[in-house]
């Protein structure tokens, strides 16, 4: 909390304009304690606590936008749950927090000073830099690109579903894990090298082709999450940097594999060039 100002930041509203309040460095991490050593099924109780933490709301005006919960399963087995609001963190932030917490914990156990290099900037510095950098000319150029890229884009992906699509869409989703066997991965890498692309582009093109066949649509919109940490000063900084550049893939005319890979590769490269414009989902 002392190290990262964003973790002790709250959001207020003045009229219609939001603004941030950075709390004092002495603000600590709220930490609840749960002892489930006597529970009939400690793991089931833990799963319930994890679900409750994930669904519990934050008060962005009161804060803090991070909270912790220490669950005692047995005498020497504990689980620490940390929940951060996405207004102050992203996937990379979770990794940074984990690394720094591990270092602080190890240093405390061994009695040595923690080895964390000072941060050159805070998230507010980045936000100010971004606002100053996105001048009218740059903003117009980036907006023009995305307007042109998304022109005529479909608003709905018509994939077959088990239930009727609700009138109001729910942003919640899920994950499906799968593993590629080594021979398939080797073939995909070779295919990528043959057409001068990356494995990411090849898989993305295959995903677009699958969605096109499932939906019967020739034009598709696919979001490509980007870490958006393009400056060295912010690589170790916790904050909501992630952006979601959007690609439009056109499969009309039944393109060849080479043509499709070239189209997707070009779209990915240009999306990275124009990734600085915050895109609202």
From TrEMBL:
List the Pfam families: Condensation
Question: This protein's superkingdom?
Answer: Bacteria
The molecular function GO annotations come to: catalytic activity
Domain Condensation span(s) in chain numbering: 2-279
* Official protein name in the record: Condensation domain-containing protein
